[in-house]
Amino acid sequence: MKYAITGGIGTGKSYVCSLLREYGIEVYDCDKAAKRLMATDRNLQERLSQAVGQEVFPQGKLDKALLAHFLLASPENNGIVNSIVHPAVACDFQLSGKTWMESAILFEAHFEKYVDGIVCVSAPYETRVERIMKRDNISRERAVEWIERQMSQEEKERRSHHVITNDGKKPLKEQIEKMLHSLKQREGSNE
User: Fold this and answer.
1) Secondary-structure breakdown of the chain: helix, strand, coil percentages, each rounded to the nearest 5
2) Distances (CA, A) of 41 to 20, 23, 84, 100, 140
């Protein structure tokens, strides 16, 4: 069975994934994979060049600023890039041999169809804002803008099978162990 970790920006998905390593679980990071594939996959680079323009890969290296400008120019542009990158990431995950993935945009990218169970990492709104400001050294307004661009935390929680609350109060390891136990029981009932 395959599983996904999702949650909005600033909820602490990556931290929860690092804790999963202590249980022998290696998590496929969709964001890092997308960056790696854009840097190494010739077919993907060619398709992005056709969509964005040849100048997006000067000297064979991705011009991140140009790509970001193209993405932010319109929802259509964002959709074009996603229609190229998301299938490549999904294919790479399936070939990776890993049974867990981390994706902030799991539902938006339709990656939920590749997994059997979904775990949402959640955190209070103000905690998320503070984490993003500190991590990325940005203003409160910019952090709020990033949060507001994503699917709501409530919707992600509603569409997930488990929720882990990363509020700095509830012990994470206890929640992870409970979640893993529940998933193991679920796997047993599906055999």
Assistant:
1) 65, 10, 25
2) 29, 32, 12, 22, 36
Contacts of residue 151, defined as CB under 8 A and 6 or more positions apart, other chains included, come to 8, 105, 107, 108
List the 117-122 sheet strands across, edge first: 27-29, 100-102, 3-6, 117-122, 162-165
**Structure tokens belonging to residue 15:** 């931290």
Output phi, psi for 190, to 5 deg. -90, -5
Model-level pTM? 0.88
Beta-carbon contacts of 44 under 8 Å, excluding residues fewer than 6 positions away, are 37, 38, 84, 85, 88
Q: pLDDT tens digits for 174-184? A: 999 999 998 88
Q: What pLDDT sits at residue 40? A: 93
